[in-house]
Amino acid sequence: MLSKRVIPCLDVRDGRLTKGIKFKGNVDIGDPVETARTYYEQGADEIVFYDITASSDGRGIFLDVVEKVASQIFIPFSVGGGINTVQDMRDVLLAGAEKVSVNSGAVKNPDIISEGAARFGAQCVVLGMDVKRVDKSEDIPSGFEVVIHGGRKYMGMDALEWAKTGEALGAGEICLNSIDADGTKDGYDIELTKLVSESVHIPVIASGGAGHPSHMVDAVTKGKASAALIASIVHYGEWTIPDIKQYMADNNVTMRTIW
């Protein structure tokens, strides 16, 4: 059985670590470089970095911050935000990332997924999805809609169909973020996570809502996710990564080595 991963997420705005609830009310909570180093030293399996206003601001990602983080950690590092071209992907990889997460840019230009996979390998391309619960309709039969630009723009796209399309185009992984659960610490959207995880053949990272290690256990068991993205639970010192991984291991989840 493949080990499950615990992945801290660094949302960065103007070069600073930030956190909000349901993509709103973001506050400054520290330095992303120092925080990434701390999580690496605690035994995080990977780190995810999002420049959360790059797409909505119509600018490129802050590559200098990416370079500083990459210089401090020696685990897989995924970076997203404002990536709209294969050249953007190349720049992020050269800055030190192992994976590139495409979200808004992929919705607007799906070919970036296949082009990126052909150029750098599918293992480098993560399809980031920000998803909101809506009423089921002909256009949104699953009841989950794709939203871009940091939760600002509804696209009229069914999340499940977009996940399948992303896989078919060559994405090697999906990071599935529930806007409704984001920052609430009430648990992941298990229905959404399971729906997507069971419909694709690539790893799915559950994102949005972690407030207790039991939520992560649910995400990788009931939700069938390959990994759990975490933020508030560690940013505010409520749990450490070693304690989270030990809790999950104690609840029969196969984990990577606990440092």
From TrEMBL:
Active site positions, chain numbering: D11, D130
Record keywords: Amino-acid biosynthesis, Cytoplasm, Histidine biosynthesis, Lyase
Gene Ontology molecular function, alphabetical: imidazoleglycerol-phosphate synthase activity; lyase activity
Pathway: Amino-acid biosynthesis; L-histidine biosynthesis; L-histidine from 5-phospho-alpha-D-ribose 1-diphosphate: step 5/9
Locations listed in the record: Cytoplasm
InterPro entries the UniProt entry points to: Aldolase_TIM, His_biosynth, HisF, IGPS_HisA/HisF, RibuloseP-bd_barrel
Function: IGPS catalyzes the conversion of PRFAR and glutamine to IGP, AICAR and glutamate. The HisF subunit catalyzes the cyclization activity that produces IGP and AICAR from PRFAR using the ammonia provided by the HisH subunit.
UniProt xrefs under HAMAP family: HisF
Protein name: Imidazole glycerol phosphate synthase subunit HisF
UniProt source species: Pseudodesulfovibrio senegalensis
